[in-house]
Amino acid sequence: MARTHLDALRLDALTLEQKASLLSGRDFWTTKPLEEAGIPSVALCDGPHGIRREAGGSDHLGINESLPATCFPPAVAVGSSWDAEVAARIGAAVGREGRALGVAVVLGPGVNIKRSPLCGRNFEYYSEDPLLSGVLGAAHVAALQAEGPGASVKHFAANNQETERMRVSADVDERTLREIYLPAFERVVTRARPATVMCSYNRVNGVHASQNRWLLTDVLRREWGFTGAVVSDWGAVQDRAAALAAGLDLEMPGTGGAGDRRIVEAVRAGDLDEAVVNASVRRVVALTRRRGGVSGAFDADAHHALARELAAECAVLLKNEDGTLPLSAGARIAVIGEFAVRPRFQGGGSSHVNATRVDAALDAIRALAPEAAYAQGFSLDGSGDARELREAAAEAAAAADVAVVFTGLSEREESEGFDRETIGLPAVQVELIRAVAAAARRTVVVLSNGGVVSLEGWHDDVDAVLEGWLLGQAGGSAVADLLFGVVNPSGRLAESIPVRLQDTPSYLNFPGEAGHVRYGEGVMVGYRYYETVELPVRYPFGHGLSYTTFAIRGLKVVRTGDDTATVTVTVTNTGARPGKHVVQVYVATSAGPVRRPARELRAFTKVALAPGESRTVTLPLDRRAFAYYDVPLGRWVVAPGDYTIQICENASSVTAETTIGLDGDAAVPVVSLDSTLGEWLSHPLAGPALLKVLTGGGRSERPAENDADGLRMASSMPMGRFLTFAGIDVPHATLRELVELGGSGGAAA
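The chain above was modelled as a monomer; its predicted structure follows.
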């Protein structure tokens, strides 16, 4: 560590040029040192699921070779583990490897919401739900940073597509931002305290995230208390001085000094306060505390074994008719599909890891069933005769007791940098599945994909489906463990699988047009939409099967305050195998003036149980579990009313529920002359007084029927215009008294 620490840094001993130089990269991956002040350079590198430390030339898209490191399951898989411990163990291992390779800041994890299944970078994100994403992201960050390096949670914010990602404006209303797209970041920042937050490329409501003061200062620093450094995504800065003023500290990569000169010019012109520069310098220099020595050593064998263990926690058994799985080692097995020998285990782009080794599923299957046959079935590069490959696969399937077909998407179909146009599997693979299913006694499909794929056109023809996502370098062995029951599947879907792409809530608005993408679905993202409009999906959020069975009983909900509660249930493994069950707690309510989803995930935990074992778990529901974001009031509000606490098998299947009443917030709404007549009449204080004025000062609490009809017709008119339109002459003093009762002091509501 450098001799000069943050506490000893004397900014007055540095020139403005020196300070500005510290706020951008020296090159693609390192910051500038300032040797005369004892400030060393630090290295940043990609690494949401494994370290990508480049040894030679620098690039951001994984083209150049990087040092060998363990490729752990990417976030798409970790999301389906529904297990904070899985996320933490990956974070810790990545942190150890980062420390060994001399990395001060690891760029990850990504906690953006899966708004559309078409997003090409969905493999780097956890879920369509902000609670699940936030819990896993916070666990990853806390464990990674405990090993020494800092984390960089990304991409802040509303970065939910690759199409025009460097300039598109995500046009999102504030309630939707607060309830869907910001909470995962908020949880990571407030609970795990990441060293850095990375701003996204896109604009948010017209303003580039890199220079969006509302995001980077008002929300991130003032509301959430973030004290670390804000770093740009690589090349995201548009106006360096504006970005610095907005709260962006470190521009990456280096720009040959152009950004530094712009900072100096802005300060000397009086356009930028030097105090802003000083604050950013302190935050960037603080990253040197994360700088460790380069040992170059980590236990690759132990980390590979860990990658295998954790990958098995992440796959989701979607379908298993008549106990097709687990397989028997003595069965005649035909393994089909090129992915079985050339596994797709990670995504393309900046997070691409040079894996220390890669397990192929066929090798792992043959270690358990040596006589397993293999047929290529299709080629990933388009070579060979597709019909001949398909017919050979069908012949192999016909000779077997069970055929296991490995299908999925290659990096040509999905990667950072572009979005998909379809959720369908390649046609050649669909044809293969159907041909094998027609020939085989039983058919199992294993999927390898970074984003949701459609199961339509072949799902009903097969007996079992294992959604393997991208499972990291040991995924082939993990899949074999799951297929043969060495490990019991325990994954649950972290995103819905729709019947059709057209059913997805963002379908009409994704990926936008004319430089804008409108988030027209609002808070109705993923299962929130499907459950609210009662639209069937192929498999719902939270779905996943096991080789054992579970029962939940004894639901008990206890109020612990005006807006908090605890949920207690007992989970029992009623089957014959050890297994893990995910307890999913949702809240449903219609309380409050805004449209609420049919139900929302508000707590969860994963429980490991031996056959016949029971365990009682208690989960807290804090204030935010019941709140909505009130935009006019600018804060979270718990509306008084009834709230139904639901224990669900998945987002579509409620197994137990109970309703509690909450006192909530007793806030009196604020009205002004810009508020509608209806809002005035419903106000508990100003409403009766106004009604008395409108009915001529009579004591009746209810207007005559004709008057009531007239008031109903005019209820949407702003109060000021209603008085003018109706020709009602209210004395100024009376009007002032009404406004004071409304609590606005004359300001707009």
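Residues 425 and 479 are 20 Å apart (CA to CA).
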